[in-house]
glucose-6-phosphate 1-epimerase (Nelumbo nucifera), 300 residues
Amino acid sequence: TKDWNGIDQVLLRTPRGASARVSLHGGQVISWRNESGEEMLFMSSKAIFKPPKAMRGGIPICFPQFGNCGSLEQHGFVRNKIWTVDDNPPHLHLNDSKGKSSIDLILKPSEEDLKYWPHSYEFRLRVSLTTDGDLIMISRIRNISGKPFSFLFAYHTYLSVSDISEVRIEGLETLDYLDNLSQRERFTEQGDAITFESEVDRVYLSSPNVIAVLDHEKKRTFVIRKEGLPDVVVWNPWEKKSKSMVDFGDEEYKQMLCVDGAAIERPITLKSGEEWKGQLELSVVPSSFCSEQLDSHWRG
Ligand code: TA6
């Protein structure tokens, strides 16, 4: 079902009580709860609700730019725009929503927007909850201008974790990464899993389409499955950086980890009329699933 909370948020719910809340401000998923009502995404206690600015948490969408490597505002502008509900999404996509609770949003540039990013596009976002409570986000970006354009993209996903020093990421071993903490210099991951004891801000390149984030204390694993998103951003600001952000509580860095399905190393170029699709699927499984089971169960 979908219930409107006021005019700018929609609550998706499954028959077994899982839920997701989507805000039209930025097309941002701001909550994803399991059947016991536990919140799976981080939202800072100091998040600033100043529509349409993105809030510190949930899943802001970064497009057409990632970071501040370009002429636009940090992470591009779509996360700071008001989206609208797309009542008649193209029929060919309806099979995406079989047995799911879904909302379709759409964003197109205004005349004002075209002044600072002169490319016409249609950005369709479908947010769905499966009957098992998995969260699926499908972005379809179509170039409707007369000429090609290129962009970067990320689902800036703030996962809620119990204690960052007890969290491991599996699936990024041996990959190259760009380190934002050293002028995006390129390194190769040597570890057998990514663990955290200080600020991390990296873009892992050409990653597998299934990543596991293990929360030791909660004995649960986030499984991130992606399509069209070759890179993975891993970010925790740690204590010093988070204290410098007004919308970040002093100790909250311990309860969050950004693991973003992204396309950053190689910009995506669309010819006129072409459409790009980037899909992210988030599930939570008991950590009793050892990696072999993860392999068969999730790596398909
Ligand atoms: O790599 C993730 C990152 O670019 C970090 O450098 C940090 O800036 C984070 O995104 C948050 O960005 P925001 O604009 O949401 O404060």
Residues 67, 74-75, 180, 201, 233, 235 surround 6-O-phosphono-beta-D-tagatofuranose (CB under 6 Å). The chain has a mean pLDDT of 91.
